[in-house]
Amino acid sequence: MEQQRKRCFSAIQPTGQINIGGYLGAVKNWIKLQEEFDCIYAVADLHSITVRQDPALLRRNSLEMIAVLLACGIDADKHLLFLQSHVPAHTQLAWVLDCYTMYGELGRMTQFKDKSAKNADNINAGLFTYPALMAADILLYQTDVVPVGEDQRQHLELTRIIAKRFNSVYGDVFTVPEGKIPEVGAKVRSLADPTKKMSKSDENENACVNLLDPRDVIIRKFKRAVTDSEACVRYAEGKDGINNLMSIYSAFTDKSYEQIEREFEGRGYGEFKLAVAETVADGLKPIQERFCAYMSDKAQLQQICRDSAARADALAQKTLRKVYKKVGFAV
Ligand code: TYM
């Protein structure tokens, strides 16, 4: 991969399945950006052990996530797709960046506050320094653009601060990256409680639609989606449930909110929910079919990861060597 085009980096954790939040908020953009950028995509297995994982499940989920991403349209011939733990430079740079990230900054991260409230018996150091590892992921590749959902905005802002702080001491070592957050789908909300984001760790299984859910499950989950009592499909403040369904429908069909309002004028929520469900199920079907094809050849998946990791390693070493030299490690 020659550096003529600008670089794009993003990652996703292999904790459970990818849901339509992660798909619409991030992965759909990952696919699009392949046309314009040299893209580097990782499955963030290192990040996922900040909460306890079942090792066998983590191993399986990591490879499945690679297959899902390929099925969504990541082109691993032209771009890179690998497991974060296969490129040791991520952890090596993370340690250096830990020393340029302030305690107060990490303590202000809303994700840290949320996750430590949820895992009160396991508020470990990794959970706290998580954003410095994320900064390392990004800065290692001299990344120009980072496609993420709304919930990662704060981490990205901190990455920019860390990069600028380091550059101000040592000269222009890191490219300062820009975030890319989509207009529609940046924050897909839970179907069971539309005041919360849709999350793969939600205990209520009806809250979250996974990319690999069968059609009947998708339809059941949308039918049970929490809405309001107005019975009018329109985008408005206070209608979180309907707004959420409209944004999902809009992201899958490219229709504007006005078009959707016109399409469902005088029709009830039941009909609207079914239309959203069927559109999502139809949209996911080809991804699911390709996923099954990829999963039938695990050796090929492992080969793709290894090839990409070797190429990523070569790029990462360049930055890491520069950083080591700048901070004064003897060579
Ligand atoms: P993760 O695995 O939680 O989510 C992956 C991507 O999906 C987006 N996303 C959503 N977007 C809209 N609505 C939702 N309900 C929703 N849920 C998830 C996330 O914003 C994210 O873009 N820390 C990251 C992974 C990571 C990373 C990185 C990302 C590690 N290193 C470097 C960018 C750059 C995370 O846990 O994402």
Description:
This protein has 331 residues and is mostly helical. The chain folds into 2 domains: 7-185 and 297-327, Rossmann fold (3-Layer(aba) Sandwich); 205-292, Orthogonal Bundle (Tyrosyl-Transfer RNA Synthetase). Helix content is 54%, strand content 7%. The chain is built from 13 helices and 5 strands. It has helices spanning 20-33, 45-48, 55-72, 89-98, 103-107, 110-118, 125-139, 153-170, 215-223, 240-253, 257-263, 269-295, 298-327; strands at 7-12, 38-43, 80-83, 145-147, 178-180. The protein has a 3-stranded parallel β-sheet. It has a two-stranded parallel sheet with strand order 4-5. Tryptophanyl-5'AMP (TYM) binds next to strand 1, helix 1 and helix 7.
Brief rundown of the structure:
With 331 residues, the chain is mostly helical.
Q: Key features?
A:
331 residues, Rossmann fold, Tyrosyl-Transfer RNA Synthetase, three-stranded parallel sheet, 13 helices, 5 strands
Low-confidence stretches are none
Number of domains: 2
Number of strands: 5
Mean pLDDT over the full residue set: 96
Q: What is the class of the largest domain in the CATH system?
A: Alpha Beta
Strand arrangement within the widest β-sheet reads 1-2-3
**What is the string of helix and strand elements?**
EHEHHEHHHHEHEHHHHH
Relevant CATH superfamily of the largest domain = HUPs
What is the strand content? 5-15%
Terminal Cα span = 27 Å
